[in-house]
Amino acid sequence: MKNMKPLEKIYFWVILAFMYLPIVTLIVLSFNKSKSRAHWGGFTFNWYIRLFSDSAILNALANTLIIALIATIAATIIGTVTCVALGGLNRRTRAFIMGITNIPMINADIVTGISLMLLFRILHFQSGFITVLIAHITFNIPYVMLSVMPRMKTISPSVYEAALDLGAKPWYAFRKTILPDLAPAIFSGALMAFTMSLDDFIITYFTKGSGFDTLSTKIYNEIKRGIQPEIYALSAIMFTLVLVLIFASNRMRTVQRKDSDLTEKQIKFRNIRNVVVVSAAGLGIIYLALLFGGVFTKNSNQVYVYNYGEYIDPEVIKMFQEETGIEVVYDEYETNEIMFAKIASDPSSYDVVCPSDYMVSRMINLDMVEPLDYEQLPNTLEHIGKQYFETMEAFDPGNQYAVPYFWGTVGILYNTNMVDDPVTSWDILWNPKYKGEILMQDSVRDAFMIPMIRNGFSINTVDPAEIEIATQDLIDQSPLVQAYVVDQVRDKMIGNEAALGVIYSGEALYCQWENPDLEYVVPDEGSLVWFDSWVITKNARNKENALKWIDFLSRPEIALMNFEFITYSVPNETAREMIEDEELRNSEIAFPGEEILNRCYSEEYLGEEGEKLYAEAWKKVKSAN
Amino acid sequence: MFTNRKTSFVMSSPYLAWALIFIIVPIGMVFYYGLTDTTGAFTFENIASIAQPEHSKALWLAIELALISTLICFLLAYPLALILARNKMSSDGILTTLIILPMWMNFLLRTLSWVTLLENRGVLNSILGALHLPQLYIINTPAAIVVGMVYDFLPFMILPLYNSLAKIDDAVINAAQDLGANKLQTLWHVILPLSLPGILSGVTMVFIPSLTTFAISTMMGGSKILLIGNVIEQEFTLTYNWHLGSGLSLVLMVFIVINMVVSMISDQGED
Questions:
Q1: Which of B76, B89, B111 sits opposite A15 (nearest CB)?
Q2: Closest approach of chain A CAs to the CA of B156, in angstroms?
Q3: Residue that finishes a domain, picked among A173, A193, A222
Q4: What is the ipTM of this complex?
Q5: Residues A500 and A427 in one domain
């Protein structure tokens, strides 16, 4: 670096700064007291401390490391053996095999991921650890082979042959003559494979199953509703660890070079060995720590729960586990449609899910849910208000399948400092004055509900002409929209990132607590009233446990805990009476009165053709920009 | 070389079996789904649907952004690789490490970090505001997606460029200069052609992931901008239409095949 010209030096550092700027940002965020990315709330070590008690993150870390480690070892062995073997084949076969090897390298990750997903589904492979591992080995082998093969070509067999002539066994001769020459290439291939495995998101995303996450997929899930700062802390630790390892191995190298008279090749080989040993030791320590942390304890008494994001008090899950001894495998989704696609493509993936009204109806129609055994739901029968079951008859005739969880409305949350017009109508979301300050819901039906009501159509229309008009409205609106979001609307509104946001009622209360400048309104034209309820999937593997789960949530004290955490309207009458905070008990947002409910409609299932019309129209809106 | 024909086959058979089951067959499945409808009947409709305005728009935008970010990556990486190669850095592997190191931090987090930096009321604008400079409103626009692509894939351009530039013998460059070529001429007539393999593999490694990404466009584009990757992803995770998703994947594979052919031709040229 010393003999670089000044200009070159500047350029070098500018590029490095570009590459490391985001990393510095992440490290800074890991010390930020405020949970929001946008604010500096003071310095804290808190996230580092909390990281070590967050089993979900540690679990994802363990999965990431184990997958990367096993996949790298397997790929390195398979790849190296194949490269050595290819030497004995003729040129054409060799070219053919290398051609196949190139496919996962050149192919888009998304195609590789999808193709493997299709394979696993057709073979009825249960998605999870094994499927992700297979996928990672598959895309890792090429990195090893493409690194080893060129080296292989340059090695002359004469030393090896000489060793054989002198009586060495083939394996011994290979180990002593060829392997040291290949080692650097094998090592750099393995390092590349390990790095790619660690960093992979897309292929893991398509091949992972329920209840299994690597860091990547966990982060992707969390990005949409605000990252837990513990993850920043974890990344900072990992980054520092790698940095230290690299400096350590570099130092070792310099020391060795000074005080020994080994040949260049021997030094190189030792260096590599050292790096391998040091990194293996580092990973081993992490792994053991996780092992003792009890991350890997497996329990066959489980229930697989799939719920909306941030839609339960995490304490409730713990209490359920402690009381029943049933392990809860808990995953979250953003919209009804995402949940539906998951269950439809992998029916046995979850036991109990929490769809909204029209989606319950859709799942009943497509025979995707199990009827409930009310004998096992005593709390549900006792504490849930009868009127809610009556309302639910609309989408669950005979109340055979669904138990209400929470309900609410949709409205506009606005920042009183940024909006000076009165907010009484959906029209304000089309006001060019607020260009770039509007957040819309990234959920098909809820997004279309708005132009439908604005135009005086039914929110359940399947009239192509009406859908066409609503689509055009949304397209006209899209230049004004800052982003289409679901759970992110909270963070952005709290952080003053936008002036107006379409939001579910419960979230509105939470946002107001965090940022008193925010105000919630159900527009005069009317809006949506929705019901989320628990259903058990068809042929669920843990049906009994799923029933226990549902009934546990219907207990008044548990429903109250959840209400206080997520502040949506609770259908549990006993729980509602138990609310201590008078202001909250009488909140118009948490418990909208007749006057508001009279102008709210609920969404119905429109048949597969109808749902498809909306899906296509939504795609048009999204690609309008 | 070290094995006879028979052992060669035995030794390479595990990989061949693996490649058959987990590379060839899955791609066959994409073809199967892409060329059938829900009843299992043969159809070209899934592939033809690329002509629908919302699909073709997503494809063209993806191509445009991928081309732009590949070009920017190249323009940023080539001088850097040249500097590093000419100064004989990295005989100790430090350079490779410095460039690979960021990849040990999850790419989604690094991209999210850019969102934090670029947000309308984010870090960069706070700094600009404090310096009384004009604000930068690029989050949730195609420009922000390009920033994300360039950032995430730059290492994939630097490494192959560096590798091929480092291989160029100094003697060749000295010879060119002795024969009267100025710096620019040496670069244009000697260094650039000799680094062509590196350029090609760098371009491939940036262009293909940029063309097909869905995570970067979702995060940097605020779910407002659909690229072809987003469309395909949503067919699987949202609308649950494997046939259409597979059909559009086949369209993507056309680009991959073109890329493969180009690199094969240039490989043969090298031999």
A1: B76
A2: 11
A3: A222
A4: 0.90
A5: yes
